[in-house]
Amino acid sequence: xxRQLRFExxxxxxxxxxxxxxxxxxxxxADADDLTQxxxxxxxxxxxxxxxxxxxxxxxxxxxxxLWIDTARSRSRKAKFEAAPEEAAKVGADGATEASAExxxxxxxxxxxxxxxxxVVSLILVEGFGYREAAELLELPIGTISSRLVRGRTALxxxxxxx
Amino acid sequence: MSVDExxxxxxxxxxxxxxxxxxTARVAADPELARLADQHRAMQARLRHAFxxxxxxxxxxxxxxxxxxDLAERRERQRPPAGFARLPQWALIAATLVLGIxxxxxxxxxxxxxxxxxxxxxxxxxxLDRALETQLASAPSGGPVRxxxxxxxxxxxxxxxxxxxxxxxxxxxxxxxxxxxxxxxxGEGQSTDYRMAAGMSPELSSLVNSTMAGEPMDxxxxxxxxxxxxx
Lengths: 163, 231
Description:
The structure holds 2 protein chains of 2 kinds.
Chain A: H1 3-25, H2 29-45, H3 56-70, H4 72-81, H5 97-111, H6 115-126, H7 131-138, H8 142-160
Helix pairs in contact in A: 1-2, 1-3, 2-3, 6-8, 7-8
Chain B: H1 3-11, H2 17-29, H3 31-56, H4 66-78, H5 89-106, E1 115-118, E2 121-124, H6 126-134, E3 146-152, E4 158-163, E5 167-174, E6 177-185, H7 194-197, H8 202-211, H9 219-227
Antiparallel strand pairs in B: 1-2, 3-4, 4-5, 5-6
C-alpha cells in the first residue's frame, strides 16, 4: 500500500478516537461532530505537513485542539447568552438512552472546567496520553500539564465523584 | 512538583521506581490518601466509560460525508482494478454505519444482518445474499434489494451491483459466496428512482467502472450466468 493510501486508512481508523476527544472538549454532540468534521477536512488539506514516521494520532489531536481553541472566544461569548444545552449528547440509538444520559452528565461536568484544564484532562484521563506526550502535543512545559491536571480532576471529582 | 502533583503522578503511573515506591508506601499508611486515590480512580473510570460510548458507537452519517467519501472514491481510482486484496477500512466503517438502516430496510423486525465478516472480509448474508443469488436485473422481484449491473472483473469473477433503500454496493463472487467490495450510503432521493437506485450513485459507479472488465451482461447472459451458479 502506498503512503497516501496508508495515511487515509489510518485517518479513517482514528475517527472514533477523534470523535471521543471532540466530545470531551465540546458542549454538545453536534458541536463535537462539527469539530471532528472540520478536523478531517483540515487534515486532508494539510496532509503534506504530516511527517511520515511521526505519530499520526498526535498530529490529528493537535489539529483538533487548535481548531477548538480557534473557536473558543466565540464559544464563550455565545455561552453567556445561552442556557445550558438541553440535549448535550445524542450518540447512541434509542436503546442507548442510559449511556447517552450518562454521557450528557459527564460532558456537562467537563464544561464547567476552564478550557486549559479541560484539554489536559481530556488528553490524559480520557484519551490516555502520558504527561510528556500531552506536553508535546500542547507545546507546554510538563509542570504546567501536571498542575492543570490536578486542578481539573479535583474540580471534576467535586462535580461527578461519588462520595 | 507539589505533593498533590506527586500523588497524582503516582496515580497516573508517571513516577519512576523509587519515587513510586515511596508514594505507594505513603498512601498505604494514610487512609485518607488511599480513599482519595480510590475516588479519583472511580471518577476516571466513569469519565472513560462515558466517553468510550462515543468511540464505540457507529460513526454518524454526516461524518462520512463529502471528505471521507472523497477519500474512498480517490482510493478506488488509484487502486489497480484487480487489486482488492482486502476490504478497505472505509468500507467497513461505511458498513457499520449503514448496517442498522440497511438491515431494517431489508428485513423489518428481524436481526439478520445483510453482511457478515469472515476472515477480515465482508460477505453478503441473509436477504442480500439471497437477492444476489437469485434475482435477475431483468426480472425485478419488487423486494427491498435491487440488482443493477452484472459483469465480470479482470480475474473473471462475476460481480453484481445492488441497492437497498439506504445503501448501494458491489459484491463479487468468491467461491460460493458474494464478497462485498464496496458499500455506500445511498444519496438523497435515489431510493425513489429505480434506475438510479440500481447503481448510479457516484461512488458506486466509480467502483463499478474500476472493477468491470468488458461489457455488462445482457438479460440472456445474466440468466445463463445464474444457471451456471454464477461461475
